[in-house]
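Run log // design_07
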């Protein structure tokens, strides 16, 4: 997934797009006009009852879009986001005009949303402090550097839609048929043109039923019964086994970062609970036994894992 264009890129694309909704009519410049003033770094793009919408607001809105929408051309996405922000400002004005912000239920919802953002910001701050480049490097040196890589298998496979088709292929192999030729002829996998070749892979790189079957084979053996996964039915040939090469940092840094972030979140939750007095009650209102340990918890929405 590529990153969303920078503010300057969006501004340039917007100037090319010249969306009619935001076109301005200006007087012709005099023949000897002075040098133009530098463009503002965060220009105002629209106002709603005097409330301003800045370029930074558009960038923030873009960053929160699903990846497929972030792939839109900037000149298409830019006016859509500006109009969306105008709509939101207009709705806010309408809601405030009806005093919905004074309604007790609405205030409770607003407070809950604000609390969630504050909680997430605190967790993010704690995680960012622990998931650093230096911490990733230290973890790599401790757990990966100079150590052998994972066990790997070199395999081919034939993927078909039904168990009967897979069984028929196994029968042909038992009568001496060439595996690669059968893969080219019958497999519906994109690798069929290469004779079903998969290359070297470790166990965690394949779905479990496939990996279990492949790693159970000896070099030169093929599966004697069809192997089912969510993709269909497989016949697998093991062509070799080895211990993989030691990983380099780029191979495992994302995995290390995630592990550090998970540990940081758990530590943050444990520390926060340790600073407060907790009392739990049963549904009937009687006091419940104190919890023995902090339960594992997933990060709340919006919590990042640091960079």
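design_07 sequence
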């Amino acid at each position: 997934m590529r990153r969303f264009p920078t503010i300057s890129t969006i501004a340039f694309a917007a100037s090319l797009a010249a969306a009619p909704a935001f076109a301005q009519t200006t007087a012709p410049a005099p023949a000897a006009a002075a040098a133009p003033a530098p463009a503002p770094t965060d220009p105002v793009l629209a106002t709603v009852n005097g409330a301003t919408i800045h370029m930074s607001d558009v960038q923030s809105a873009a960053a929160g879009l699903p990846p497929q929408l972030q792939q839109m051309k900037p000149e298409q996405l830019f006016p859509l986001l500006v109009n969306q922000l105008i709509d939101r400002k207009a709705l806010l004005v309408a809601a405030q005009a009806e005093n919905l912000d004074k309604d007790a239920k609405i205030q409770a919802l607003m407070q809950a949303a604000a609390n969630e953002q504050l909680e997430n910001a605190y967790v993010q701050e704690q995680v960012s402090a622990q998931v650093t480049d230096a911490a990733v490097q230290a973890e790599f040196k401790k757990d990966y550097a100079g150590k052998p890589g994972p066990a790997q298998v070199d395999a081919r496979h034939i993927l078909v839609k039904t168990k009967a088709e897979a069984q028929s292929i196994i029968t042909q192999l038992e009568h001496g048929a060439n595996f690669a030729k059968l893969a080219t002829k019958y497999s519906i996998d994109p690798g069929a043109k290469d004779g079903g070749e998969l290359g070297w892979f470790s166990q965690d790189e394949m779905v479990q039923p496939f990996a279990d079957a492949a790693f159970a084979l000896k070099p030169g053996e093929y599966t004697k019964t069809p192997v089912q996964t969510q993709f269909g039915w497989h016949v697998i040939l093991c062509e070799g086994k080895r211990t993989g090469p030691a990983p380099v940092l780029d191979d495992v840094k994302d995995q290390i970062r995630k592990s550090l972030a998970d540990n940081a979140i758990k530590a943050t939750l444990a520390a926060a609970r340790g600073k407060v007095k907790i009392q739990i009650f049963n549904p009937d209102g009687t006091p419940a036994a104190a919890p023995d340990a902090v339960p594992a918890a997933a990060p709340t929405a919006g919590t990042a894992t640091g960079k």
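Strands lie at 44-48, 51-54, 151-160, 197-202, 227-229, 232-243.
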